[in-house]
UniProtKB/TrEMBL annotation:
Positions of transmembrane segments: 280-305
Residue ranges constituting the PatA-like N-terminal domain according to the UniProt record: 4-83, 87-161
InterPro entries: PatA-like_N, Pilin-like, T2SS_E_N_sf
Keyword Transmembrane helix among UniProt keywords: yes
tRNA processing recorded as keyword: no
Pfam families per record: DUF4388
Protein source organism: Cystobacter fuscus (strain ATCC 25194 / DSM 2262 / NBRC 100088 / M29)
Name of this chain's protein: Response regulator
Keywords: Membrane, Transmembrane, Transmembrane helix
Amino acid sequence: MALTGTLKDFGIADILQLIGQQQKTGVLYLKSKDQDVQVFIRDGNIVRAESVTRKKKDLLGNMLVSAELITPQQLESALEIQKRTLKRLGDVLTSTGAISAEKLKQMMRLQVTESLYGLFSWKAGDYEFKQEDSVQIDQDDLAPLRAESVLMEGFRMVDEWPHLRKKLSNEATTFEKLKELPPQKAQEKEDDFDASFDDAFSEEKKDENKGEFKSIGSTERRVYSLIGPGRDVRKLVDLSCLGEFETWKALVNLLNLDYIRALPPSGLSSLSSSARGGDLLVRLGGVLARAVVTLLVIAALGFVASRLRPDTWDLQGASASSYSDPAAQRLVSRAQQVRIQAALEVFRLEKGNLPERLDSLVEVGLLRNEDLRYPWRDDYYYRRTSDRQFILLPPLR
């Protein structure tokens, strides 16, 4: 089966579904700007995923050091042995007793699943599937994953990520414990690390918590136990060994249930001993932005006034109906559009994104109602195309 093309025409979900339904065996090659991933498939099941262009921090040895499962010295020693013996790094680490075989296998599985589920965030790229009967299931590979399960998990992540990012927007955020977690249930597993890791990739666990952000399970307990001074979101992701998505979700669960409190990043709180100082800085920035934009608008309107004949229009009390010269209307309209654009930019700086409607500029006091149609009778045409881009046009004449 020859399958090749771009992800814009045929998405990763469609590709995996097609291969899974036909129970094909081979390698799926995916490439984007700076990423190159290979997915190995046997009888429609995913048995391995490798990132050819994996970043240094995502290499297995560095992941183990970041998770504090081995020390930098142990990794350096293992790499030296690997050079001499040509053994796999994992085999060297287990043979020297630096890490247990089970913990190593869990981290290898995490490395694979992070590469695999990361594909669902790709917006563009090329793909090619090559049938290769030589793909085999190795005992060191992760247990084969059904394509349907991968699709369900990938869609779940895509669906829930925006909610997580909205609640927890900065990776440099640290946390403070507010109260203890409820007693652990007797049926929960004794090994917190193994239980948390298994729950993070268990379909039963995902179905239980899907979209709720309310349950306290093994993943939440694992993340809660790791919270401490100086440990931000990035560090907790490394230490938990649960993956980025599961760690973020556990943190949001704990925040929603008031077991922990988010602390502002040190860069924002350094000017003040409390979060109020950061809020004041934001408010002052908004006021300053308004002042600068207002001066620019006044200058622009002054330039327009100097170019127009004073006997054709009156800025003090003229209505849209007093403009008899269409050229004058268009000239004034250009200046008015500059003012609206400036107000939109101030709104974006303060709120984080552009408004859905121009009326929102009036509601926050940036413009008046008449500013949205001056010098015309009808409103300006406005459409937001993204958080930072928009279309603004005068009304159709």
